[in-house]
Batch of 2 targets.
Target 1
Amino acid sequence: MAVTGRVAGRGFFNRSAVVVAPDLLGCVIEHVTDDGLVAVRLTEVEAYSGDLDPASHAYRGPTPRNAVMFGAPGHLYVYFTYGMHFCANVVCEGVGVASAVLLRAGEVVEGAELATHRRGGALSRELARGPARLTVALGIGRDDNGLDVCNAGSGLRLRRVRATAQRVLAGPRVGVSAGAQTPWRFWLDGEPTVSRYRAHAPKRRAVKPAAR
DNA sequence: CCATAGATGCACT
DNA sequence: GTGCATCTATGGC
């Protein structure tokens, strides 16, 4: 059955990502495509702030890739990584301030059949457990970069759902090397859909043949 | 549950 | 050329 909750407007996103991030927990993101609708209740997010955040894609200033992060709040920033995955952020704060919240994980609450098909038959709680899995479940890809979550015509919207009694926990972000100490990952306590925490795994360089 | 390796395209140095 | 805001498969406990 349909999820109820007020659709988030521009003002909701026009705040610091660190403030928006915990507010997103429990909220539901919906994406409508020709295939149907999938809705995900967010259980895990991470905040990224361009100015002083070495982990942010915007840390070194504007580039073609991160341009959306510098734009208006409420738009989707989708990036491609590891040669095969897409991850989705919601842009926060005003034009010129590169701040965003990465949608890391959630629970599929509507359109489970479609999401399961997109995910190749994964188990229910694995459907959107992890940022790249979440984009697959929702049908978000390269073409969705820059879409306006606050515009009904975009097919994307965020419903604000009453905060649960669940505790919000915070800790270091996943998979980042620089800025790994900043506790800007937020998740709902006890949720089985929260991705298992993995600290950044430094890759050893291939060992060169010993010099002789 | 934990740890590791490989896949793979591209933005940026 | 280097290094990813990751996932899956595989193996061990």
Target 2
Amino acid sequence: MTDSRPVRVRFAPSPTGDLHIGGIRTALFNWLFARRYGGKFILRIEDTDQKRTKEESQAGILNGLAWAGLNWDEGPDIGGSYGPYIQSERVALYRQWVNWLVDKDLAYRAYETPDELAIIAKLHQGYDRRARELTRDDWARFDAEGKPFAVRFKIPLLGETTFTDMVRGPITFQNDKLQDVVLLKSDGFPTYHLANIVDDHFMEISHIIRAEEWIPSAPIHKLLYEAFNWEMPQIAHVPVILAPDGGKISKRKHPEAAISYFIKGGYLPEAVTNFLCNVGWNYGVLDAEGNEVQIFTKEQAAEIFDISRVTNNGTKFDLVKLQWLNGEHIRLMNPVELAKRLRQPLEDAGLTVDMDLLIRVTPLIQERIKLLNDIVELAGFFFRGEIKPITVTDLVPKKMTAPQTRSVLQQAYDRLAALPDFSHTSQEESLRPLAEELGLKPGPLFTAIRVAVTGQPVSPPLFETMEILGRELALARIAHAIQLLQ
RNA sequence: GCCCCUAUCGUCUAGAGGCCCAGGACGCGGCCCUCUCAAGGCCAAAACCGGGGUUCGAAUCCCCGUAGGGGCACCA
């Protein structure tokens, strides 16, 4: 799988918006690959498009990657021996090498304006290579006129180009279908094609793992490596992530396309990376019964990651399965650690969090929530001074009347008030017999108390809840409910 | 339009010619457990895109259709 070069892979996003879920997956596969072979994972910012680059987007990318736990060994913030890691700081290098190509007659200047190009593109399929005919004298004349130019790559007119994809095997393109792509824009900045090759070479990248949408430019890149006489990294294209409805997942139509959706939505990075591992790749470890293991860490995945086993078809994004996985990871966590992560969602909902209280509440909800944010609805009442307003309808269980309910609550109140201690076990030992004495199933009795005490029909286990709330508060709320039923 | 990639349950996938009348997981349905809700346990339904080859034998290899996806910028 790896040749003799030390493994160095990179994730190279362009800072033009939120980090995309597909980007995270690409980054994850690169990370997995680097860790698997004891190599380096490098972060490089490709900001060569001056118009679309957004200042704030770079920070978002770094945050998103850090949130996912995809730590990089070299990058714009931490440096490294191959820097700088931001392309806009490397333009001199690109110009040097594009000039080298022009000197060797492997690239040429093109002076068409955008308007001319638009017309040419309509008449032919793309650019018709007319500037190839220009002589150096023509260049000098245009330069004297002050005409701006771009530099285009001279693609061989004949023959074919084949590269071997680590996940798909050999892929061949006819050279006459390839475009003489622009290498250096008239603003002096390189295009992706140039900057990418130059950087990968000088950063000694050994393997390129990127999304499928880059397959069509791979032959051009191979030709560029040949033109420079540089060794081409091994290359792998991983399938794109599709929206649940089939099409390409877009931030516009699908909020879950952006990583911020998961950060804000109460997802665990452990669950997101676990999920993404299995989108397009199969962990393939069996448990004692011979079933495939679904839940694992990215570190475990890194031990056996195999890029050649990545699937080669596009995969739909199943949010429901991610949510299930998130719940599984929540259940796996140490309760105190979980409590720490539960703090933010509560605060975001405007609640004041007492950490000691939260640590007591957490075990009650740990197996009842799928997303961290679910705590607000299920157990937010612990952190509010008062419960939501309730009505008689809320309070009276099915098949019971208001007077019945009132009487039942009164008796429950008396028993709870008389308890020597307010532990949940004592409560249960006292109230279960009461239900029986009243000829009731436990359900209706406990439901009435639950609504009275928590203000909700659904709550964590009643007795544990009341124990944490404390006798005073629990009884006051029951008393209030009794009043309501007068 | 041209080029490229892909094709197993609704979804993610296992399957590297016989172990497959196709296995696992999510979801869905049912049952059990149960103070609500979950979690957990058990059971069930559910797929090899179509047609031709190759072969003693094909989900697996080849070809042709079809369908989906991606790419055809001085964006990455």
